[in-house]
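G., the chain you wanted modeled:
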Amino acid sequence: MAVKNEVGKKMTRQEAGRKGGEKVARERGAEFYRKIGKKGGEKVAEERGSEFYREIGRKGGESRRNRSSNTGTKVTVGLNLKAQTRGKNRRT
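Predicted structure as tokens:
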């Protein structure tokens, strides 16, 4: 189903979602998001317990690549690789 914008042109799903989100933010304000965030957090705590929050807090500083390894160490391979290859891929 295509959604049309003000000019009558088709809108992408991304554009439609952005417009809807902006409208909700304008109409309901920041307090609305605080309330639903708190309700969601309370529900997750009720269902999963405090260990869930400890785990995601521990993972908070890790890159996505390292989260599945469960080694507890942070590796910056991506950043180092980027620094090493800087300028090497340019055409001369």
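The longest strand covers residues 3-4.

Shout if anything looks off.
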